[in-house]
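S1.2 Input.
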Amino acid sequence: MKIHKALLAVVLGSFLAAGLAFAADAKKGAAAPASKVAGCCAKAAKDSKACGHACCVTSAKESKNCEKCGGAGAIEAKK
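S1.3 Output.
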């Protein structure tokens, strides 16, 4: 009976390890969005204004979206 429990533990442990390894590979393959505008900046743009947050103004001068407010990446050029 001890052999059955030990074998079961080894099999379950190997399934767990394989699952974690495949999950890590899938996560590496997922690409982050190139650019994401912060919510406050999107609201201001909707009203044809510029966002007044100091962090957003500083980030805009660097041609980046404000990460503090939830943005990511560089500001995309308007078409």
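S1.4 Remarks. The chain has two domains: 1-30, 35-73.
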